Amino acid sequence: MIMFQMVFFCVCAVILFLIVKNISIWNKNNHSPRLTVPATVVTKRTKVTQQQHANAGDPTGAHGFSTTTSTSYYVTFQVESGDRMELRMSRSEYGLLAEGDQGNLSFQGTRYLGFEITS
Q1: Domain of 106?
Q2: Which InterPro entries has this protein been placed in (predicted)?
Protein backbone atom coordinates (compact mmCIF):
# COMPACT_ATOMS: atom_id res chain seq x y z
CA MET A 1 0.00 0.00 0.00
CA ILE A 2 2.83 2.39 0.85
CA MET A 3 4.51 1.64 -2.51
CA PHE A 4 1.32 2.57 -4.37
CA GLN A 5 1.13 5.87 -2.46
CA MET A 6 4.76 6.66 -3.24
CA VAL A 7 4.29 5.96 -6.95
CA PHE A 8 1.07 7.99 -6.99
CA PHE A 9 2.82 10.89 -5.25
CA CYS A 10 5.76 10.77 -7.69
CA VAL A 11 3.47 10.74 -10.73
CA CYS A 12 1.47 13.67 -9.33
CA ALA A 13 4.70 15.59 -8.59
CA VAL A 14 5.98 15.08 -12.15
CA ILE A 15 2.67 16.19 -13.65
CA LEU A 16 2.58 19.27 -11.41
CA PHE A 17 6.19 20.11 -12.30
CA LEU A 18 5.45 19.88 -16.05
CA ILE A 19 2.35 22.06 -15.71
CA VAL A 20 4.26 24.75 -13.78
CA LYS A 21 7.17 24.60 -16.25
CA ASN A 22 4.91 24.98 -19.30
CA ILE A 23 2.96 27.85 -17.72
CA SER A 24 6.27 29.55 -16.88
CA ILE A 25 7.50 29.26 -20.50
CA TRP A 26 4.13 30.47 -21.84
CA ASN A 27 4.20 33.46 -19.46
CA LYS A 28 7.81 34.33 -20.32
CA ASN A 29 7.01 34.22 -24.05
CA ASN A 30 3.97 36.45 -23.56
CA HIS A 31 6.09 39.05 -21.74
CA SER A 32 8.90 38.96 -24.33
CA PRO A 33 8.94 41.55 -27.11
CA ARG A 34 7.91 40.53 -30.61
CA LEU A 35 11.04 40.82 -32.73
CA THR A 36 11.71 40.64 -36.46
CA VAL A 37 15.36 40.20 -37.43
CA PRO A 38 17.29 39.20 -40.58
CA ALA A 39 18.17 35.49 -40.34
CA THR A 40 19.29 32.45 -42.31
CA VAL A 41 17.92 28.92 -42.05
CA VAL A 42 20.88 26.83 -40.88
CA THR A 43 19.34 23.42 -40.34
CA LYS A 44 16.06 21.57 -39.95
CA ARG A 45 15.19 18.54 -37.84
CA THR A 46 12.23 16.49 -36.71
CA LYS A 47 11.57 14.63 -33.47
CA VAL A 48 9.31 11.58 -33.61
CA THR A 49 7.78 10.31 -30.37
CA GLN A 50 5.77 7.14 -29.90
CA GLN A 51 3.40 6.11 -27.13
CA GLN A 52 2.12 2.61 -26.61
CA HIS A 53 -1.12 1.91 -24.80
CA ALA A 54 -3.21 -1.18 -24.25
CA ASN A 55 -6.08 -1.82 -26.68
CA ALA A 56 -9.73 -1.69 -25.64
CA GLY A 57 -8.95 -0.29 -22.20
CA ASP A 58 -7.07 -3.47 -21.21
CA PRO A 59 -4.31 -2.26 -18.84
CA THR A 60 -2.61 -5.68 -18.86
CA GLY A 61 -1.86 -5.56 -22.59
CA ALA A 62 -3.22 -9.07 -23.04
CA HIS A 63 -5.15 -7.93 -26.12
CA GLY A 64 -2.23 -6.14 -27.75
CA PHE A 65 -1.07 -2.58 -27.86
CA SER A 66 -1.72 0.32 -30.18
CA THR A 67 0.89 2.95 -30.91
CA THR A 68 0.40 6.69 -31.25
CA THR A 69 3.10 8.60 -33.11
CA SER A 70 3.62 12.37 -33.20
CA THR A 71 6.22 14.47 -34.95
CA SER A 72 7.61 17.83 -33.83
CA TYR A 73 9.32 20.13 -36.33
CA TYR A 74 12.32 22.37 -35.50
CA VAL A 75 14.35 24.86 -37.54
CA THR A 76 17.62 26.48 -36.47
CA PHE A 77 18.07 30.09 -37.56
CA GLN A 78 21.25 32.17 -37.47
CA VAL A 79 20.88 35.91 -36.98
CA GLU A 80 23.32 38.62 -38.11
CA SER A 81 25.23 38.59 -34.79
CA GLY A 82 26.09 34.92 -35.37
CA ASP A 83 23.77 33.67 -32.61
CA ARG A 84 21.63 30.66 -33.40
CA MET A 85 18.18 29.77 -32.16
CA GLU A 86 16.12 26.65 -32.67
CA LEU A 87 12.37 27.21 -32.87
CA ARG A 88 9.51 24.73 -33.03
CA MET A 89 6.95 25.26 -35.77
CA SER A 90 4.06 23.64 -37.60
CA ARG A 91 4.55 20.99 -40.28
CA SER A 92 3.26 23.32 -43.00
CA GLU A 93 5.71 26.12 -42.09
CA TYR A 94 8.55 23.58 -41.79
CA GLY A 95 7.87 22.26 -45.29
CA LEU A 96 8.16 25.73 -46.83
CA LEU A 97 11.69 26.33 -45.55
CA ALA A 98 14.99 25.04 -46.91
CA GLU A 99 18.49 25.23 -45.50
CA GLY A 100 20.16 28.40 -46.74
CA ASP A 101 16.94 30.44 -47.03
CA GLN A 102 17.45 34.06 -46.02
CA GLY A 103 14.78 36.40 -44.78
CA ASN A 104 13.18 38.07 -41.81
CA LEU A 105 12.46 35.91 -38.76
CA SER A 106 9.65 36.96 -36.42
CA PHE A 107 9.59 35.46 -32.93
CA GLN A 108 8.52 36.18 -29.37
CA GLY A 109 10.75 34.54 -26.76
CA THR A 110 10.92 30.91 -27.86
CA ARG A 111 7.70 31.16 -29.89
CA TYR A 112 8.04 31.12 -33.69
CA LEU A 113 5.81 33.70 -35.37
CA GLY A 114 6.91 33.55 -39.01
CA PHE A 115 9.66 33.75 -41.59
CA GLU A 116 9.48 35.92 -44.72
CA ILE A 117 11.99 34.85 -47.37
CA THR A 118 13.78 37.79 -49.00
CA SER A 119 16.22 36.07 -51.34
Answers
A1: 31-117
A2: DUF2500
The domain spanning residue 105 has which CATH number? 2.40.50.660
- The structural domain count of the chain equals 1
Q: Give yes or no for a contact between 49 and 106, defined as CB atoms under 8 angstroms apart.
A: no
- In one-letter notation, the amino acid at residue 114 is G
Sign of CA dihedral 109, 93, 74, 84: negative
Put simply, whether the predicted model's pTM sits higher than 0.70 gets the answer yes
% the chain with pLDDT above 90: 66
In a domain? residue 26: no
The residue count of the chain comes to 119
pLDDT in tens, 70-86: 999 999 999 999 999 99
Nearest to 67 by CA among 47, 85, 46, 53: 53
Order across the sheet with 65-79: list the strands.
Answer: 84-89, 65-79, 34-54, 102-108, 111-117
Compute the distance between CA of residue 4 and CA of residue 112 in angstroms, rounded to an integer.
41
